[in-house]
Amino acid sequence: MSIYQKFCREITDEQGRLQSIELDYPENFNFGYDVADAIAEATPDKTAIVWCNTENESHTFSFSDIRACSNRMANVFLSAGLKRGSRVMVVLKRHYEYWFAAIALHKLGITMIPATHMLTVRDYVYRLRTARVDAVICTPQNETPDKIRQAVKEAGLNCILWCVQKDAEGFRNLTAETAQADTALSRRETAVSDPMLLYFTSGTTGNPKGVIHDFSYPLAHIVTAKYWQQAEDGGLHFTVAETGWAKASWGKLYGQWLVGSAVMVYDFDNFDPRQLTAIINRYGVTSFCAPPTVYRYLVRKGIPDMPSLRHASTAGEMLAPEVFRRFTERTGIPLCEGYGQTETTLLMGNFRGCEAVKGSMGIISPFYHVELRDKGGRPVPVGEIGEVVVIPPENGRQPGIFSGYLDHEAQYRHAWRGGVYHTGDAAYMDEEGHFWFHGRFDDIIKTGGFRVGPYEVEHVLMEHPDVAECTVFGVPDPLRGQAIKGMVVPREGCAPSRELELELKEFCNKKLAEYKWIRTIEFVEQLPKTISGKVRKAALHKG
């Protein structure tokens, strides 16, 4: 029996499709003790992490190793004065120390704030000040210690600074301190309602919001791992994401360990599709999750045989149908798309036992009650665009949905207006119950009396071989109210021209209903994006 079964009751049909799932956990549930340490106690040699990097280093860590290393690190934190309720920013890329630190912080009831090394000094200053950070743990690479040291000074904070692997000016060496620490650690008091994680979500407008998740959050990822990513007990799951992003929580730790799967970690800076497939084959990866960008590169560069791989999933951006088709034809594995937010876990997906429908976000997770509603809060009919909202259970407790925005209670209440959580994302449902993404609800284009989701037009535009990236949005038009404008980054080696503009418009408009036609196209070298890679449509509107 996998350990996740201690904390839930699930009902599946004869095809293995999840029909319902209910969580059952104690009020002091703590992933560090009740999952990581519990596995170590029952099966100490069970593999937790298979790690390698571009320098040909490799390590395999058992759950016994995770218990010992996290206990050592926890004792370092305690000796430095950190305690339940402290806040620690963790900037560790894909270093294996991230897993030791995460479990150590969880055991002590310390709020972990994952962040990426790609942030600027200004970005760090904002996060440090906003979260009132007590300590920072960082990588020695990419000039990260220099940026953090400067940011802490500008923020006017007196943080404890740790760097892993080597000495850095102004930093304590966490690796050296951990090696000298005791492996014994008694259980600390924590509550399931305590803040466990704080993610700064980039958004497309305004400053990043601090999204808080409590200690029940890992359990909501049982569905993510088992029924969407199809991670298996004794298997090896590989999610590409860097640990600074919420996607790492989806695919590099919680759900995977709960269902008994080890996690594959490849520590790299520059993406190379050949390296990823080599890792999959070298270590026998059984399930794989990556954003559509990775699959696009794999298709373009040629997909080798991957005999160990049994399942592939994707989320985060638009997946072109051609990529889906070519990947599936080459591997025999359909790409299972999914949908959720930093504020949630997986809300929809192409799940185990269901046929993957290309381009669709899938069906609603049985873990949530999700509806599509109009701006008046009314459910929309099948086939019409509405906002994705989450309706809480009668007891009001919904693990997996964030517990607050840091220091923004009014913003949190607004997100929960009308008693439901408003995702701000637009979609429609077809007759078979599959959901189709249409962008941000506020980005819906109203043209000639019709409502058009940008995603459906972008989806067609991306099919043209000369388009590397694109976005579409509405611009003022005296006849239509709004006209649809496309911004296109041409593929490498393709020069913008009037001829290309006409070709793209003809290519798209042949495939689109007339009211969805692209009226103008502008070529750009790059699209304005948030740090997480989302196109900032608001900036384009201002432009």
Mean pLDDT: 92
Q: What is the CATH architecture descriptor of the domain at 47-180?
A: 3-Layer(aba) Sandwich
Broad structural category: alpha/beta
Q: CATH topology of the domain at 47-180, anyone?
A: Rossmann fold
Spatial strand arrangement across the major sheet: 4-3-13-12-14-15-16-17-18
- Unreliable spans are none
The CATH first-level class of the domain at 47-180 comes to: Alpha Beta
How many beta-strand segments? 28
**What's the gyration radius in Å?**
23 Å
Q: With helices defined by DSSP (H or I, 4 residues minimum), what is the helix count?
A: 16
The outline comes out as globular
The main β sheet shows up as:
9 strands, mixed
Approximate strand percentage: 25-35%
Span between N and C termini? 57 Å
Portion of residues within helices: 25-40%
Describe the structure.
The protein is α/β, with parallel strands linked by helices and 543 residues long. Among the domains are: 47-180, Rossmann fold, CATH 3.40.50; 446-542, GMP Synthetase, Chain A, domain 3 (2-Layer Sandwich), CATH 3.30.300. It is built from 16 helices and 28 strands. A 9-stranded mixed beta sheet has the order 4-3-13-12-14-15-16-17-18, sandwiched between helices. The chain starts with 7 loop residues before the first strand and ends with a helix.
